[in-house]
Design a protein that fits this description.
The chain has 189 residues and is mostly helical. The chain has two domains: 37 residues; 139 residues, Tetracycline Repressor, domain 2, CATH 1.10.357.10. Helix 7 runs antiparallel to helix 8. The longest helix has 25 residues.
């Protein structure tokens, strides 16, 4: 209840406090402090829940792609990232920025994020081992892919697409096209 209330406050752009989350959750002002010592602890729990939901989305997307096709898996990961961020803008904002809390303060979040980074590293290493990539600089490819999906999600969250003449109903198709263009650029012909 408190996590949902804090998420709602963040979604509204309101200042998140333990007391306001308690009020929204209809619990006594002191009750949350039995679970969360301060706002950072509450926001870490919110971020951990957001990350858990994000991880479910990634795992579901990857389940539909053959394990032997690392570039298709890398594409599916990227699309799942963008789709999740578009459907869950408050969660995306919480886990992608330092606005709400210090990310390094949550060992669980740090560990889970490291696992997702390692997953993309493995996909790209498999693609390289299969001779599918133009570049041997896997770190650069990985960072470029992350920048692409993060940037696309951020553009959506910040309302940039109307200025680029991309209608609301076309954003997801645009994401697919942009990711496909990226994949075509990193793949050997």
């Amino acid at each position: 209840m408190l996590i949902d209330a804090a998420l709602q406050l963040a979604a509204e752009g309101a200042e998140v406090s333990v007391r306001e989350a308690a009020r929204r959750a209809a619990v006594s002002p002191g009750a949350p402090f039995r679970h969360f010592s301060n706002r950072d602890a509450l926001m870490a729990a919110v971020a951990e829940e957001a990350q858990r939901r994000f991880r479910v989305e990634i795992e579901a997307a990857l389940a539909d792609v053959p394990p032997a096709d690392p570039l298709a898996r890398f594409r599916a990961f990227g699309l799942a990232y963008v789709r999740w961020a578009m459907r869950n803008p408050a969660h995306f904002e919480i886990i992608s920025t330092g606005r709400y809390f210090a990310h390094g303060s949550s060992a669980e979040l740090t560990h889970d994020n490291s696992e997702l980074v390692a997953l993309t590293e493995r996909m790209l290493a498999e693609a390289a081992a299969q001779g599918l990539l133009r570049s041997a600089d896997l770190k650069r490819v990985q960072i470029a892919g992350r920048a692409l999906v993060y940037g696309f999600a951020r553009m959506n969250l910040d309302g940039h697409f109307p200025r680029w003449d991309v209608a609301e109903g076309e954003i997801e198709r645009m994401a697919e096209g942009v990711i496909d263009l990226f994949i075509a650029g990193i793949a050997k012909p």
